[in-house]
């Protein structure tokens, strides 16, 4: 393990509280700069190839990688994100930010505005009525698993590790927009603490700028807020 990295493998409060076990075949640690390039690659491939909206829009992987790099660089600075490692290779990531201090999203591809608009719709009604202070709500912004390490419950593992880091930093709640049913199933059914469904949107019914950008896409997205 890199000497600058902070291991979190022994922090099990949210695992024990929610009756989960830490996967012993992976090393979980804070996301730090030495793993930046690997994280950017996992992030880009997972979303461009497998995330419903991004894959549906056939977003350019090179352009998307620029976005992924900016988000990842901010995550390194925020010190709230988690990586899962196996023999030094990044297998999964959970990127987290302070919801009161979100990362500035670059205007890198016009098609991405459709995704941002839908995500904004999921929380707009709730958060328009609430003032959010720093260190109050952490935002589980990105969860991604390398395709070679799938079907090992790694999204659950990194997400609950991220809860540990956020709670240790002083956050009381966590918010997440789930755009893939597997990620939702990897978190919500396991929660023993209170949680609330904040918003839901069927992809094919979403209207943005008088168009339906996901008219032929099945499924939908949901957002939740839960205590940590």
How would you describe this protein?
The structure is a single chain. The protein has 228 residues and is of the alpha+beta class. The protein has one domain: Aminopeptidase (3-Layer(aba) Sandwich), CATH 3.40.630.30. 35% of the residues lie in helices and 22% in strands. The chain is built from 7 helices and 7 strands; from the N terminus they run H-E-H-H-H-E-E-H-E-H-E-H-E-E. The chain has a 7-stranded mixed sheet with strand order 1-2-3-4-5-7-6, sandwiched between helices. A hairpin with a 2-residue loop joins strand 2 (82-86) and strand 3. The longest helix is centred in the first third of the chain and has 18 residues, at 61-78. It is globular. It starts with 12 loop residues before the first helix and ends with a strand. Mean pLDDT is 93; it is low at 1-5.
Give keywords:
228 residues, alpha+beta, seven-stranded mixed β-sheet, Aminopeptidase, disordered N terminus, 22% strand, 7 strands
What is the correct CATH architecture?
Answer: 3-Layer(aba) Sandwich
- The number of distinct β-strands equals 7
**CATH class categorisation:** Alpha Beta
Domain module count:
1
Report the uncertain regions: 1-5
Q: In percent, how helical is the residue content?
A: 25-40%
The CATH topology assignment is Aminopeptidase
- % residues in beta strands: 15-25%
Helix-and-strand structural type: alpha+beta
Mean pLDDT: 93
Largest beta sheet: strand ordering: 1-2-3-4-5-7-6
Shape: globular
Largest sheet: 7 strands, mixed
């Amino acid at each position: 393990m890199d000497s600058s990295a902070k291991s979190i493998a022994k922090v099990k409060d949210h695992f024990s509280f929610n009756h989960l076990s830490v996967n012993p075949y992976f090393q979980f640690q804070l996301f730090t700069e030495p793993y930046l390039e690997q994280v950017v690659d996992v992030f880009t491939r997972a979303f461009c190839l497998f995330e419903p909206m991004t894959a549906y829009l056939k977003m350019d992987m090179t352009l998307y990688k620029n976005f992924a790099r900016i988000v990842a660089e901010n995550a390194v600075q925020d010190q709230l994100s988690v990586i899962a490692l196996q023999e030094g290779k990044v297998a999964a990531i959970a990127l987290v930010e302070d919801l009161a201090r979100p990362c500035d999203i670059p205007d890198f591809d016009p098609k991405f505005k459709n995704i941002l608009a839908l995500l904004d719709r999921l929380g707009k009604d709730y958060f328009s009525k609430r003032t959010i202070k720093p260190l109050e709500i952490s935002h589980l912004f990105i969860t991604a698993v390398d395709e070679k390490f799938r079907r090992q419950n790694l999204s659950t593992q990194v997400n609950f590790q991220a809860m540990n880091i956020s709670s240790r930093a002083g956050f009381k709640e966590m918010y997440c927009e789930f755009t893939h049913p597997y990620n939702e199933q990897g978190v919500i059914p396991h929660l023993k603490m209170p949680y609330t469904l904040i918003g839901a949107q069927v992809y094919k019914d979403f209207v943005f700028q008088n168009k339906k950008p996901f008219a032929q896409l099945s499924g939908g997205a949901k957002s939740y807020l839960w205590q940590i």
